Amino acid sequence: MYDLSKGADWLNQWLNGFCPAWLTVTIECVLIGVVLLLAYALLALFYIYFERKVCAAFQCRLGPNRVGPAGIFQSVADMFKILIKELISLKHTDKFLFALAPYLVIIASMLCFAVLPWGNGLQVIDFNIGIFFLVAVSSIGVLGILLAGWSSNNKFTLIGAIRSGAQMISYELSIGLSVITMVALAGSMSITDICMAQKDLWFIVSGHIPAIIAFIIYIIAGTAETNRGPFDLPEAESELTAGYHTEYSGIHFGFFYLAEYLNLFIVAGVATLLFFGGWMPLHIPGWDAFNHVMDFIPSVVWFIGKAIVLSFVIIWFKWTFPRLRIDQLLHLEWKYLLPINLANLVLMVIVICYGLHF
Question: I need a surface site. Which of 8, 157, 253, 335 has the fewest CB within 10 A?
Answer without folding.
Answer: 335
